[in-house]
Amino acid sequence: MAKIVGILGGMGPMSTADLMRMVTEKTPVMHEREHLRMLIDSRPQIPDRPAALLGTGPSPVPMLQESARLLEAWGADLIAIPCNTAHGFLSDVQAAVGIEVLDMIGIVGREISRMFPDGAPIGLLSTTAAQKLRIFHDRMPQFNLVVPEASVQEELVAGAILQVKLEDAVEEPRRKLLEAIESLEPAPLAVIAGCTEVELAFQGAGGPVPIFRPMDLLAEEIVTRAWREV
Predict the structure, then answer these.
(1) Do residues 127 and 196 both lie within one domain?
(2) What angle do CA 158, 161, 164 make, to 5 degrees?
(3) What total of structural domains would you count in the chain?
(4) What gap in Å lies between CA 150 and CA 174, rounded to an integer?
(5) pLDDT tens across 123-168, in order?
(6) Does residue 191 lie in a domain region?
């Protein structure tokens, strides 16, 4: 029997809806009744993760843990969180439940290792908080993660993320992100779309180098773990 998937979402709501769409599209069913059951707690009221990580806002941990416990109580067999920066609190969420919380950033590192050798320069487009607190760097020490210099990060990357969140736009944010990629030194062999809004901006489009899309990889992992392996 297929496993029941819990999605701890709302960070932001469009990313949550997009993960559900990705999982549905990737599940190779013959009939709609064969699709995975997904339980979703989309909670946009969860405090800002970057602000909390930088010490300038309240902790999201109580709400994250409450949502995780709720999904477990509803019957979820595993939990996915479609938010990169929220993975800075992954251990807190996992500690609150007895079911597995999938590690999206760990999944990305595993997939990069299958394509590139240790020490390879890999670009990272993420929130400023994720960079400052090394959410990706500490999980992928085998790679040389390359981030934009400060002014590019704030003007182009952070600006693009905010634009996707507030305006549901993609073309202008994508232009900004492509410009940010071109500025990276050393030139990366691939780029991690390390924020769900960055990934949404690149949806249906590529870049000058391969782009690793964490939420897309998370959707693949969900299908593998909840549908194919049962």
Answers:
(1) yes
(2) 150
(3) 2
(4) 19
(5) 999 999 899 889 999 989 999 999 999 999 999 999 999 998 887 7
(6) yes
Cα distance from N-terminal residue to C-terminal residue, the chain: 6
Instruction: Please give the C-alpha separations between residue 129 and each of 24, 51, 56, 157, 194, in angstroms, as whole numbers.
Output: 31, 7, 11, 12, 11
Residue in this structure with the two tokens 């492509």, named with its chain if needed: 178
Confidence of residue 230 (pLDDT cuts 50, 70, 90): low
Same domain, 47 and 137: no
Q: At what angle do helices 13-26 and 214-223 cross, to 10 degrees?
A: 50
User: What token pair was written down for 77?
Assistant: 């067999």
How far apart are alpha carbons 7 and 181 in whole angstroms?
30
**Integer Cα distance of 26 and 36 in angstroms:** 11
The span from the CA of 209 to the CA of 197, in Å, is 19
Active-site residues, by number, are 83, 195
- What CATH number does the domain containing 99 carry? 3.40.50.1860
